[in-house]
Design goal:
mainly alpha; globular; 3-oxo-5-alpha-steroid 4-dehydrogenase (NADP+) activity; sexual differentiation; 3-oxo-5-alpha-steroid 4-dehydrogenase; 3-oxo-5-alpha-steroid_4-DH
Length: 265
């Protein structure tokens, strides 16, 4: 893989410049996405329509679209001269990244119960995004990210790591609650209860937003920050859309629940 990358980039300086450009472009795309989502829900699940292409089986879609976020980084770490992977801060940040995507690509899709098919456009965009972001995050961490020897004891790294862990656990627990709302063979929607769902409609989204915000704080780079910003824009929109949908569909939906942030928003 080193030979492939050496053909694409004349030098490490050039590749690092490209990685920086990818990060800033992701921030630009987050801004464009924010404007778009003011007028349109993300077309998946309950919001899926035929306007966005033919339907793709939900389990197949989740598995295939998320897999590049695991496989591309894995290849970058195993089959390139990833010099920075010998440094503890880089190792811990890579573990955070892989913990999420091992679960999201290799475990989560096969636990889905019911669920509506994913429109092809949403599936294709997610697939491309996972390649893009997987390369950007892990190539930077494994090859270019420089941290001081005491970075793992710095307030930024410790706070970010704790936020990442809390967010990851909240996300896993919330997905477990949502998955078990449906008995085998059921496909309808029910009011989620338990865990953070007692306080917000988008507990799973809150967890993932917190997770990547913590990762960005611990990694302290424009690359991790751009992913955190993009995640915030997309998942906050989903949380507010779900909250409105729940209130409209269920007359007995708890009126005290917020959309995304407990007691606040």
């Amino acid at each position: 893989m080193d030979s492939i990358l050496s053909k694409l980039f004349a030098s490490e300086t050039e590749e690092l410049y490209v990685l920086d450009c990818l990060a800033y472009f992701m921030i630009f795309m987050a801004a464009c996405t924010f404007i778009t989502l003011l007028f349109e829900n993300v077309p998946y699940g309950r919001y899926a329509t035929s306007r966005y292409g033919f339907p793709v089986n939900v389990k197949f879609a989740w598995f295939v679209q998320e897999l590049p976020a695991f496989l591309v980084p894995l290849c970058l770490v195993l089959w390139t001269s990833a010099a920075k992977t010998t440094h503890l801060p880089n190792q811990l940040l890579l573990v955070m990244y892989f913990c999420h995507y091992v679960q999201r690509s290799l475990i989560y899709p096969f636990l889905i119960r019911g669920g509506k098919s994913t429109p092809f456009a949403s599936f294709a965009l997610a697939f491309v995004f996972c390649i893009y972001n997987g390369y950007m995050q892990v190539r930077y961490l494994s090859h270019y990210a420089e941290y001081s020897a005491d970075w793992v004891t710095s307030p930024c790294f410790i706070t970010g790591s704790v936020l990442w862990l809390v967010g990851w656990l909240v996300n896993l627990h919330s997905d477990h609650i949502l998955r078990n709302l449906r008995k085998p063979g059921e496909t309808g929607y029910k009011i989620p209860t338990g865990g953070l769902f007692e306080y917000v409609s988008g507990a799973n989204f809150f967890g993932e937003i917190t997770e990547w915000a913590g990762f960005a704080l611990a990694a302290h780079s424009v690359h991790s920050a751009s992913f955190s910003i993009f995640t915030l824009i997309v998942l906050a929109s989903r949380a507010f859309a779900h909250h409105r949908w729940y209130l409209q569909k269920f007359e007995d939906y708890p009126k005290s629940r917020k959309a995304l942030i407990p007691f606040a928003l």
